[in-house]
Amino acid sequence: MLKVLGKWLKIYEDEIGLFLWIAALLFLVRSSGILLNNYAETAFLKRYGVEYLPIVNMINAVATFFIMGVMAGIMGKLPGARLLFYLFLFCGMSVAGIRFLIPFGIDLIYPVLFMLKAQYEVLLALLFWNLANDLFNTRQSKRLFPLITAGGVIGQILGSFGTPFMVRMLSFDNLLFAYLATCVVGAVVV
Q1: How many angstroms separate the CA atoms of 111 and 113, rounded?
Q2: Angle, nearest 10°, between helix axes 80-101 and 109-135?
Q3: Residues 130 and 75 sit within 8 Å (Cβ to Cβ)
Q4: 165/171 Cα distance (integer angstroms)
Q5: 163: closest CA among 10, 61, 70, 32?
Q6: pLDDT digit string (tens) for 42-99?
């Protein structure tokens, strides 16, 4: 079955394992991102409204510029897989730490979380695609990257449709622990 599917998708036999691994990794990046995105946007808009979105987005754009500059320097010093591993853990643990601050009623948490979700999404995607570029040559990339992207799309779809189910099972604020869990799984998969 796997050989037939590989032949149909033009994945060579020696690439199947690496392809499945990297597609699963993008699935985890995107599914975790959509969980955090759904929580952060809902919580921010509920407490602050849309009138603060331009301010937060402007601050976020400036922060992205500086964070990417720092990340470019770090990427030259550490292997991509190790950096992605550490970033997965950092993202998950920092969001779980924020979850423990929610009962204290600090309203500033929500704009910070809104900004973090955008930063984490960009950073994880950057490191993922940097790793993918290290693993595949140009010819393979042309064939496989559209298929790998499908793993991310499936992760976003399942994360979106799974969010209401998780909210019913865990409660809305505990979605942040679900994000932690997907980040830990992502770190293990790396």
Answers
A1: 5
A2: 160
A3: yes
A4: 10
A5: 32
A6: 999 999 989 999 999 999 999 999 999 999 899 989 999 999 999 999 999 999 999 9
